[in-house]
Design goal:
The protein is an alpha/beta fold. The chain is built from 10 helices and 7 strands. The protein has helices at about 5-25, 30-35, 35-45, 70-80, 120-135, 150-165, 185-190, 195-200, 210-225, 260-275; strands at about 60-65, 140-145, 170-175, 180, 180-185, 205-210, 230-235. The strands form 2 sheets. Strands 1-2-3-7-6 form a 5-stranded parallel sheet, with helices on both faces. Strands 4-5 form a two-stranded antiparallel sheet. Helix 1 (about 5-25) packs across helix 4 (about 70-80) and helix 3 (about 35-45) crosses helix 9.
Length: about 280
């Protein structure tokens, strides 16, 4: 798939995020939007998955450790064909299978229920270890937030993954610099992030996480690394793609009203049209 095709899909993912959160009147748009390129590349280019057989034993696994950005994952799964995009309008509604956090029992394509920060990555480490013990060649990918890595459980899991040399494991850290209470630097700085993962025997790559070329190069490099898990520190823009949401901590967990929704969707529509003219 070309970079232009991926960029077009990322715009549709962003539309799905805004639609879902607006319909729910709650949710987390900021961190969902910042990770749209990561979601898109993983599900449309990198991972061995089949929407027609979401429980295939040989599939690659993905765990959304920062489970509150479920709208980003759901919008991507819908674009990939795991369920109809119309379902995004039912996010967080009573009776909908699209809950506020990912639910592996009810949502096609979700490999692990998550939401309690720090726990998702531990599950991903367990999946990677199981693959090694069973002699399987599937790979495991996880996405954590830069605020989430303030949780001690992230580092317990990292210590274990590094010690066990789980080179079938890739962790993306969405380093958008903001969490619910403001700048991560001000709340409880996790910097230097890369040095910490290096100390836990990870191979570390730092990229622009909103650039498909850099995501592709990092994942290619990760596949070639033997004897170490990989941590990709992805510098991103919180709220990316919607002008009034970008780099604003207030959009961490707030839904747009009708007027804001219309503005956001018009911006994304124009972005998609511009890509179609290229």
């Amino acid at each position: 798939m070309t970079k232009l095709e991926l960029e077009k899909i990322a715009v549709e993912v962003r539309k799905g995020i805004i639609t879902a959160v607006h319909s729910a009147k709650s949710g987390h748009p900021g961190g969902s939007l910042s990770a749209a390129e990561i979601f898109t590349y993983l599900y449309f280019e990198e991972m061995n998955i089949d929407p027609a057989n979401p429980k295939d034993e040989g599939r690659d696994r993905f765990v959304l450790s920062k489970g509150h950005v479920a709208p980003g994952l759901y919008a991507t799964l819908a674009q990939r064909g795991f369920f109809p995009a119309e379902e995004l309008k039912n996010l967080r509604h009573i009776g909908s299978f699209l809950q506020g956090h990912p639910d592996m029992k009810h949502i096609p394509g979700v490999d692990m229920s998550s939401g309690s920060l720090g726990q998702g990555f531990s599950a991903a480490v367990g999946m990677a270890l199981a693959g090694k013990m069973d002699g399987k060649d599937y790979r495991v990918y996880a996405l954590a937030g830069d605020g989430e890595i303030q949780e001690g459980q992230i580092w317990e899991a990292s210590m274990f993954a590094g010690h066990r040399k789980l080179d079938n494991l890739v962790l993306f850290v969405d380093n958008n610099g903001l969490q619910i209470d403001g700048n991560i630097d001000d709340v409880c700085s996790p910097y230097p992030i890369g040095d910490k993962f290096t100390a836990f025997n990870f191979h570390v790559i730092t990229i622009n996480g909103n650039d498909f070329d850099e995501i592709a190069a990092a994942l290619k490099e990760a596949r070639e690394i033997k004897g170490q898990p990989t941590a990709i520190i992805a510098k991103t823009v919180k709220g990316k793609g919607v002008s009034f949401m970008e780099n604003q901590a207030g959009w961490h967990g707030k839904a747009p009203n009708d007027e804001e929704y219309a503005i956001a969707m018009e911006e994304l529509k124009k972005a998609g049209e511009a890509l179609c003219q290229m």
